[in-house]
Design a protein that fits this description.
There is one protein chain. Helices cover about 10% and strands about 35% of the residues. By secondary structure, the chain is mostly beta strands. It has five domains: about 10-205, Sandwich (Jelly Rolls), CATH 2.60.120; about 215-290, Sandwich (Immunoglobulin-like); about 305-570, TIM Barrel; about 570-670, Immunoglobulin-like; about 685-950, Beta-galactosidase, Chain A, domain 5 (Distorted Sandwich), CATH 2.70.98. The strands form twelve sheets. It has a 16-stranded antiparallel β-sheet that branches. Bound molecules: beta-D-galactopyranose. The site of beta-D-galactopyranose has 12 residues, from loops. Beta-D-galactopyranose binds near residues 88, 416, 417, 490 and 550.
Length: about 950
């Protein structure tokens, strides 16, 4: 008996990168040589273990007619076979590297193909079979001959196959295993989704064709010249018609050029010609360097306004189509984002083509994360074990060789959350040696032993400020390096709060070169019953719930309020002023371009109604310059009332990423403030049988609670301090700071009782005294409702006095009430979207219209949402509400308690009432789901407070 009987499967648990592949090389989408896409429908068979089936399916003539089919590129788990698993950092299998479980879902893929008519003769040159991404390990056969096996899911692998090809009836067989030794290196926070999820292509390789090549295109900002040298494994010529360049490969040439930057993505068309092939080149001239402790491009320090992007599509997972990739880049550009970190693996190569074309700085990250080893104090971490070093070096090489010709890539990242170790150092050394023209990033290298940037994730504002001021200490090498937040502002659920305060630090301290919000898109999976599924929805035994939904985009790519906020916070032009000085201050915050690409306009609005508008001439300020630009006189005859200037900077012309007029930046200047609503105290409360009346108000005689305003029925009006805790309120389990969501719940703020102490009918007021407190606690809010009226309108003054020892802030402070019906909503105040105290930069004061349904923000896991800030007045359901001072308006067809209890949007069922919250204040949002909570100035302290609301009825508008 043999103890080692799985020889044929040894590759699965082998730490080596694989066998049989060609060396890694530059990736290019097109050339004049023929290729054949093997994407499409493949025959498919899923087995529960790696060795459940023999490999006879790889032979010609095998009958697979009883197999099912899957789409390639695709993940079988999203096509009805098996199911996805979500874990953040836990390995969903026992940790015993390099071993994997016996239960190892294995997908056999089969495709029979003929060569197209125009395929050159079988003896003319060779052919290469390329896999752009297979998770996590594959073995490949062509026409019955094994080509090899490989790991490295998001990296390309090529095999020479010319000698095996036939004109017709080629049988390509691929066996894909969900788990392999490679899984230990791919512990990124995302769904585990095996499959052939990127393209499969057969490339004809003519005799004398291009092999690998390296485009070196630097820019000297002092002379305005670019130097081009294309190193090529196969000699040839390089031409760039626009620059009259025609040189041999390996030969350098220097000519005047326009440089490439994310703001000016100037690409020159070139061609690399060898004896057997012509490869089009898109050349961007730019130089990345570290100097004066800063990261500079073309001599200028840059400020990264970035996002972390995972590849995600709610139906297709990481099998993205080109249109979706383009949509991502367009959405980024349209939201003022200028940088992307390809967390946490190299993206589909076409994405980088788009970054080159449209202009984004890229931190290109290797497919490496071993985060799960943190559970065992990083014991046996592959990055510190020489057995794994060849695999790590292979991954580094496949990243760099594939992507080295992209001007957009300015930084290589070794990977994410893999601890520290010799393997990482080896990767960094190899990369530095191979490509000295870019910087190296790796956040886990806290002392910057191997890296060129000091990077951190989720550091709070105070620490970032210390780093900015150079007061953070650390080793000498690190102190001389620029700083980036490779992740910050965790965009999970409602939030992130605190973006503006970070941006102020980035703009203030030059060492701080910006950061990347975590993350771009929610990885929700479209689900027939749940809307979007997250961790646990597929019955996983280990999972991390909705931590996988923490993006600035909802899964369907609709921008969340967080993205709208980010766009405003990072706008490249600042437009400020006090509204009465006659001028507006305009500052250019771009790194490279002047303002000539923007057209400015103004509008003058009184009470949210446009009174005048026009264009504004702003000089073409250079980067860093500011000017006080004259505003016109306020339009003559403008009515009295609260007035604002709104100044917008829009694109002067169409660009490749947005049409003319697209708003890039705006500012709102207050001309005259608001007059608080005044209600004379002339009406008297009248006591009837069961009701008390006061002006338009009808109250319950026993409880003093409001029943109607004019003809509009109102129910359950009372103080409300509870909100459906957000992901950021709840915080992450590992958070050491106070997490208020759980504390609020422990205190019982979600189940406060309202004790009625007195109903007092006075001369000119109805006063209701209550004590609001949770069971089992001695803390309370003494709450007095005082109603007065002028006969038409009802004024409610709410006075709140905390009693007892309050040690937590309040979630919210306001009143809530129920209306029997409401649909259309209009208001004058902040809009159009939701805003909270520390997520309010994008709110424009104006008159807005919406509906109750559209006021809901569709967070994948339901939670508090939808507040409109600084609302002066609002009308809905026949009620008009004016605030003194302005209030937060929230309206929904379910109660806060129902919202709080829901796990998915589909749990929210409209009831018979519309619940309206009119909040005097809200606790800040922060980003404690994986970072700091709200800054202290946004804490809603339990302190004495008084606020008033004025109610009247309006003609019902629907
Ligand atoms: C970071 C990690 C990311 C993600 C994030 C939280 O630690 O690098 O991959 O897990 O936290 O969403």
């Amino acid at each position: 008996m043999s103890f080692h009987h799985r020889t044929a499967l040894d590759y699965v648990e082998d730490t080596s990168p694989g066998t049989g592949m060609l060396p890694p090389r530059a990736w290019y989408a097109t050339s004049d040589s023929t290729s054949l896409s093997l994407n499409g429908s493949w025959r498919f068979r899923l087995s529960p273990t790696a060795d459940a089936e023999d490999d006879s399916f790889t032979e010609e003539g095998y009958d697979a007619s009883d197999w099912t089919e899957v789409a390639v590129p695709g993940h079988w788990g999203l096509q009805g076979h098996g199911s996805p698993i979500y874990t953040n950092h836990l390995y969903p299998f026992p940790v015993d590297p390099p071993h994997v479980p016996t239960e190892n879902p294995t997908g056999d893929h089969l495709r029979v193909f003929d060569l197209p008519q125009d395929w050159p003769g079988l003896t003319e040159g060779g052919a290469v079979l390329r896999f752009d991404g297979v998770e996590s390990c594959a073995r490949v056969w062509l026409n019955g001959t094994v080509l090899g096996d490989f790991k490295g899911s998001r990296l390309p692998h090529e095999f020479a196959v010319g000698h095996l090809l036939k004109s017709v009836g080629n049988v390509l067989a691929v066996r894909v295993h969900q788990w392999s030794a490679g899984s230990y290196l791919e512990d990124q926070d995302q769904w585990w989704l095996p499959g052939i999820f990127r393209d499969v292509t057969l490339l004809h390789r003519p005799t004398g064709c291009v092999l690998d090549f390296f485009v070196h295109a630097s820019y000297d900002h002092r002379s305005g010249t670019g130097t081009l040298r294309v190193d090529s494994d196969v000699d040839g010529r390089v031409t760039v018609a626009d620059l009259a360049i025609d040189v041999k490969t390996g030969e350098a040439v220097t000519v005047p050029v326009e440089p490439w930057s994310a703001e000016t993505p100037r690409l020159y068309d070139g061609v690399l010609v060898t004896e057997g092939e012509r490869v089009p080149l898109l050349i961007g001239f730019r130089t990345v360097e570290l100097s004066d402790g800063l990261m500079k491009v073309n001599g200028t320090p840059i400020l990264l306004k970035g996002v972390n992007r995972h590849e995600w599509h709610p139906h297709k997972g990481r099998a993205l189509d080109l249109a979706t990739m383009r949509e991502d880049v367009l959405l980024m550009k349209r939201h003022n984002i200028n940088a992307v970190r390809t967390s946490h693996y190299p993206p589909h190569p076409a994405f980088l083509d788009l970054c080159d074309e449209l202009g984004l700085w890229v931190v290109d990250e290797c497919d490496l994360e071993t985060h799960g080893f943190t559970e065992q104090g990083w014991r046996d971490n592959p990055v510190d074990d020489d057995h794994w070093t060849p695999a790590l070096l292979d991954r580094a090489a496949r990243l760099v060789e594939r992507d080295k010709n992209h001007p957009s890539v300015i930084v290589w990242s070794l990977g994410n959350e893999a601890g520290t170790g010799r393997g990482l150092t080896a990767m960094a050394e190899w990369i530095h040696e191979r490509d000295s023209t870019r910087l190296i990033h790796y956040e886990g290298d806290l002392n910057c032993r191997d890296t060129d940037l000091y990077a951190r994730m989720y550091a709070d504002h105070a620490e970032v400020e210390r780093i900015g001021r150079g007061l953070d200490g650390g080793p000498r090498r690190r102190r001389r390096l620029p700083f980036i937040l490779c992740e910050y502002a965790h965009a999970m659920g409602n939030g992130p709060g605190g973006l503006a305060a970070y941006q102020r630090l980035f703009e203030r301290y030059e060492r701080l070169q910006g950061g990347f919000v975590w993350e771009w898109i929610d990885h929700g999976i479209a689900h027939p019953d749940l809307g979007y599924a997250y961790g646990g929805d597929f019955g996983e035994e280990l999972h991390d719930g909705n931590f996988v939904c923490d993006g600035l985009l909802f899964p369907d790519r609709q921008p969340s309020p967080g993205l709208v906020e980010y766009k405003k916070v990072i706008e490249p032009v600042s437009i400020t002023g006090d509204g009465t000085s006659g001028t507006v201050r305009v500052s250019n915050k771009y790194d490279f371009v002047d303002l000539s690409g923007l057209a400015f306009s103004w509008s003058y609005r009184v009470e949210g109604e446009a009174v005048g508008s026009g264009t504004l001439s702003v000089p073409p300020l250079a980067p860093g310059e500011s000017a006080d630009v004259h505003l016109p006189e306020p339009p003559p005859g403008a009515p009295a009332g609260e007035a604002h200037w709104t100044v917008c900077a829009g694109l002067a012309d169409d660009t490749r990423w947005a049409p003319q007029g697209h708003v890039v930046a705006w500012g709102q200047l207050t001309v005259s403030g608001r007059r608080a609503p005044y209600v004379a105290t002339t009406a008297r409360p009248v006591s009837g049988d069961a009701v008390i009346t006061l002006g338009p108000g009808t109250f319950d005689a026993g409880t003093g609670s409001l029943r109607a305003v004019g003809g509009v029925a109102v129910s359950d009006l009372r103080l409300d301090v509870w909100r459906a805790t957000t992901d950021n309120d709840d915080g992450a389990a590992w958070q050491t700071d106070l997490r208020y969501g759980p504390l609020w719940r422990r205190l019982g703020l979600h189940r406060v009782q309202h004790r009625l102490d007195a109903v007092e009918i006075g001369e000119d007021a109805l006063t209701v005294r209550t004590r609001v407190a949770p069971a089992a606690r001695e803390v309370a809010l003494s709450t007095v409702y005082r109603w007065t009226s002028d006969g038409d309108r009802l004024r409610l003054t709410v006075s709140v006095t905390p009693r007892g020892d309050w040690r937590v802030p309040l979630p919210r402070l306001g009143i809530r009430l129920g209306l029997t019906a409401a649909d259309r909503v209009q208001w004058f105040g902040g809009g159009p979207g939701e805003a909270y105290p520390d997520t309010r930069m994008a709110a424009v004061v104006d008159r807005w219209q919406s509906t109750v349904d559209r006021m809901q923000t569709p967070y994948v896991r339901p939670q508090e949402n939808g507040a409109r800030i600084d609302v002066r007045w609002a009308e809905l359901g026949g009620l008009r509400i004016e605030g003194d001072p302005a209030f937060f308006l929230t309206a929904r067809r379910w109660t806060t308690e129902q919202l709080d209890a829901a796990a998915h949007r589909t749990d929210l069922v409209p009831g018979n009432s519309v619940w309206v919250n009119l909040d005097h204040a809200q606790h800040g949002i922060g980003s404690q789901s994986c970072g700091p909570g709200p800054l202290p100035q946004y804490h809603l302290r339990a302190e004495p407070a008084e606020f008033a609301l004025v109610f009247s009825s309006t003609p019902v508008t629907g």
